[in-house]
Specification:
This protein is α/β, with parallel strands linked by helices. The model has no long low-confidence stretch (mean pLDDT 96). The protein has two domains: 198 residues, 3-Layer(aba) Sandwich (Rossmann fold), CATH 3.40.50.720; 100 residues, Alpha-Beta Complex (UDP-galactose 4-epimerase, domain 1), CATH 3.90.25. Strands 3-2-1-4-5-6-11 form a seven-stranded parallel beta sheet, sandwiched between helices. The longest helix has 21 residues. It is built from ten helices and 14 strands. Pfam families: Epimerase.
Length: 324
């Protein structure tokens, strides 16, 4: 049985990927310090509590479980927080990944699936964005992930590290079976915030920025269902078992949704009109991020199946209602 060690596997995307790996017949080990993850989201194998920056703890987990592949999700991922506290992002995301890679190679583990981001592109010079688009991040979160990509490339040339690097666009939605979902403290993600405004009395959804150069003035994002993302990681792991080298893929749909269109969709799916307020742009927010994802389809056979906006909202709404 193929074994995968999943760093950050108690978090939102990591836990959905653990389920996808398990359903594909992989043995799944979660490695997480639970600072932003949830113990009850670990359902598909053992949990090792540890920090990716703790070299001894990482080395011990690698010795014990001898994974064929490491899938790396352990990162802070709030753009606004990264602008205010960049040290958190360079210490945890960038330095922590350096420790992880060093310990992997010492242990003879040379296959890495890396959870990267479209934030590494910065403000697009063309759209949709393909993998060859220039990378020039505009916030510390994006830079922290960009630096990891450069490290992966360097370790590939110097030490034979093999990697699939997946640049997500906007992950959203929840497990259609309702076993796991999206939880953040504090919650800053647009879909859960909009749903809370629709179904919880007294909540108001704030649209941050109405003066972007987009079709209705609000930011455009390419929303991809987390279950589709999870399937891409399984396919990426299978590629690493076959092929050497570093392989980069965008994960998106190629369709952008404005924040106003998202608000309308949440109202339509929930049956409740959202109270809306308007605020200024958040620091570090590009006006539009839409993927060209054809490479993932050509090379991995990956096609999103759950990522129309109503399905995304419907699965997330079911999750939040189940917890009320």
């Amino acid at each position: 049985m193929t074994t995968v060690l999943v760093t950050g596997g108690a978090g939102y995307i990591g836990s959905h990927c653990c389920k996808a790996f398990a359903e594909a017949g992989w043995s799944v080990i979660t490695y997480d310090n639970l600072s932003r993850g949830w113990r009850d989201a670990v359902k598909w194998g053992p949990l090792v509590e540890g920090d990716i920056a703790d070299a001894e703890a990482v080395a011990a987990a690698l010795r014990q479980y001898r994974p064929d592949v490491v899938a790396h999700f352990a990162a802070y991922a709030y753009v606004g927080e990264s602008v205010e506290y960049p040290e958190l992002y360079y210490r945890n995301n960038t330095f922590g990944t350096l420790v992880l890679i060093e310990e992997m190679l010492k242990a003879g583990v040379n296959r890495l699936i890396f959870s990267s981001t479209c934030a590494s592109y910065g403000i697009p010079v063309r759209s949709p964005i393909d993998e060859a688009h220039p990378q020039w991040p505009i916030n510390p979160y994006g830079w922290s992930k960009f630096m990891i990509e450069r490290m992966v490339e360097d370790f590939s040339r110097a030490r034979g590290l093999n990697s699939v690097m997946l640049r997500y666009f906007n992950a959203a939605g929840c497990d259609p079976d309702g076993e796991i979902g999206e939880r953040h403290e504090p919650e800053t993600h647009v879909v859960p915030l909009a749903i809370e405004a629709a179904i919880k009395p007294g909540r108001v959804f704030t649209i941050n920025g109405t003066d972007f150069d987009t079709r209705d003035g609000t930011a455009v994002r390419d929303y991809i269902h987390v279950t589709d993302l999870a399937r891409a990681h399984v396919l990426g792991g299978e590629k690493l078992l076959r092929d050497q080298g570093v392989h980069v893929y965008n994960l998106g749909t190629g369709n952008g949704t404005t924040v106003k269109e998202l608000v309308d969709a949440v109202g339509r799916v929930s049956g409740h009109k959202l109270p809306v307020a308007y605020g200024s742009r958040r620091p570090g927010d590009p006006p539009a991020l839409v993927a060209a994802a054809g490479k993932a389809e050509r090379e991995l056979g990956w096609v999103p199946r759950h990522s129309d906006i109503d399905t995304i909202i419907g699965t997330a709404l079911a999750w939040y209602r189940s917890r009320m």
